[in-house]
Amino acid sequence: MSRDRRRSTTSPRPIRLGLGPNLAQFSLLVAVNALVGGMVGQQQTVLPLLASGEFRLTGYTFIFTYVAAFGITKAAANYFAGTWSDRFGRKPVLLVGWLFAIPVPLMLIAAPNWWWVVAANVLLGINQGLTWSTTVVMKIDLVGPARRGLAMGLNEAAGYGAVAVSSLMAGYLADQYGLRPAPFLLGLAYTALALLLSGVFIRETRDHARLEATQHTPRADGMHDHLHADLTNRQIAAATSFTEPALSSASQAGLVNNLNFGLSWGLFPLLFATAELGAGQIGVLFALYPGVWGAGQLVTGALSDRIGRKHLITAGMTLQAAALALIAASHGFTGWAAGTVLLGAGTAMVYPTLLAVIGDVAHPAWRGRAVGIYRVWRDSGYAVGAILGGIVADLMGLHAAVWGAAAVSAASALAVAVRMYETHPRPVNTSTQRAPRG
Q: Would you list the domain boundaries of the chain?
């Protein structure tokens, strides 16, 4: 009897799907993802000013090299994050990702030339790809199918809310203490805290995905029947990139969304500086975009669980196009502030919803790889936006580059409207859904 009692006290806790049963782990992952976003926010306001002020760089294309380097390496890291998390587990990938973050703020503080900044952003891209992709997959693992939109809304709200707060803090520190080293001390603190949380308190979630796979049932309408559990990596990549209408539509919309973000990252501070705004005002403008984006996802992620995914994505891409047009047509703080708020709102409608689409369609057995491939396409947008934005800005001016992004966003909205189908199996109030009988 006593031996049985001892065995029962040491047996592993049962695995359950859902936000309620996994709230503690889910909350820790939200906190970790906020730290991931903070690593980007510490530099967004400061690096364009550092490029033009301290390193005396001219030519927008050259200044945007750090955004392109970040986007390319983050896109590649997303692929490996998905593949490795399915093969080795989620937690080891998360830890490795944070190890790559350690040198980043130190290199930015010590950088004697611009290529140190580019190299630091290569490491930051690896950090972001491995850690952000893994926290996305882990949250989807924990919550199960019913609350994917809510889970992704909370995840992305934490990450991009932290981008906004850190951008604001970095702008303030730069105003008060100079461009270096004060703003980058934030990154050192974020990395230390993230390594502690990830190494000591975060638990592996791959068994949650395996449990969901045993409960997986085909859709009643027959969609996804060809997307069975034992697809090869090549088949998963082809479906996510080109052949499956919802997955590939999500990939192209994600790329355009981050094209806008990459463009804003490198170009907006320079555009705002043409009105002779100070670093503090530029920091406010730059924080509005991810701030509204982050806070809005607290609503839009859960909303997609209630009304479905497709129309929210279409409307969000359309709103982004309108916001960019307003920014391009403006020449002062008021117009730019209104445009960045609208851009954040449109992005909030799209960002968690696209991830929910991937979770809806991908089988639990290869979900990590599908998320990774989607994020390869999405985060390639950083590089595309930075390079194309820089070229257009050099040839035709800053405002012309923003007009171009507005046109691309409108085309993306049209493509989603035509090609994507509704992926949420029952776009109704999830509180009324019941488990199927049988």
A: 18-207+234-431
